[in-house]
Specification:
Low-confidence stretches: none
Shape: elongated
Oligomer: single chain
CATH superfamily of the largest domain: Leucine-rich Repeat Variant
Helix content: over 70%
Mean pLDDT: 96
Strand content: under 5%
Order of helices and strands: HHHHHHHHHHH
CATH topology of the largest domain: Leucine-rich Repeat Variant
Structural class: mainly alpha
Radius of gyration: 18 Å
Number of strands: 0
Largest sheet: none
Number of domains: 2
Number of helices: 11
CATH architecture of the largest domain: Alpha Horseshoe
């Protein structure tokens, strides 16, 4: 595919025509070029949740690990809170073995969907971590469990506490 074709798909992806935009996102993901990945990484910074979500989904399908850090940054943006479940889902499609602290922070401080996706990853993936990482998680758990959000309480404080004790 020529660079002009990629640029045309990028332009269509941002159009107001939702059918054309969806097709363009699908095509950019299927092509999977570095230009498409860079475009998606740029969209993670957007204030438009729909664009962030489409970009995150595309990055997960392309499976380029350079997306991990930008996904983490996008998840943690205050304006993304309660609208970042897709971003966490995309993040957890990658190898998260070194993201124990980050995933627990999502569980402790984000909204329901993001918490759920992070908990699933914590249960399903194997992690490599240090004693300092465990201490960090325990310190944040102590804070979060003192005044838990309703969604954190719904997931079960005892269950989450047991997960942390098993570290």
């Amino acid at each position: 595919m020529q660079p002009n074709d990629i640029a045309a798909l990028q332009s269509l992806a941002l159009s107001h025509d939702s059918a054309a935009a969806n097709t363009a996102f699908t095509d950019l993901t299927a092509i999977g070029t570095n230009e498409g990945v860079q475009f998606y990484l740029h969209l993670l910074e957007s204030d438009k949740a729909n664009w962030r979500n489409k970009a995150a989904s595309g990055l997960a399908q392309i499976a380029d690990p350079q997306a991990i850090e930008p996904l983490l940054r996008a998840i943690q943006k205050p304006e993304a809170r309660n609208r970042n479940g897709t971003l966490v889902y995309a993040l957890t499609s990658f190898d998260c073995r070194h993201l124990l602290k980050e995933l627990f922070l999502i569980v402790f401080y984000q909204g329901y969907e993001a918490q759920l996706m992070a908990l699933i990853a914590l249960e399903d993936q194997e992690f490599e971590y240090s004693a300092e990482d465990v201490e960090f998680v325990r310190q944040h758990w102590h804070i979060a469990s003192q005044a838990p959000s309703s969604s954190l309480a719904e997931f079960g404080l005892t269950t989450i506490g047991e997960m942390i004790e098993e570290l």
